[in-house]
Amino acid sequence: MAGALFLGHGTTATYYVGWSGPQGRELDAQQLLLWRGIEALRENGIATLDLGGIDTRRAPGVARFKLGLGGEVFTLSGTWL
Question: Which of 23, 3, 22, 15 minimizes the C-alpha distance to 65?
């Protein structure tokens, strides 16, 4: 239905990848996995979680979730090919 992978490094973690099938998307399973992941990371001493970029056009639901968690919006320089 859905899955999520977090990578821990010190007291920080990164949300690396997530997936939801049709039923998972219908039930918002990814949001539940992210929330449960945040709880588990905190219980294991993780103080900061990097959820990655915010794309309000292609992933408005994910953007709303990240912003609802108090995500900080900022722009970094990048490599464009």
Answer: 15
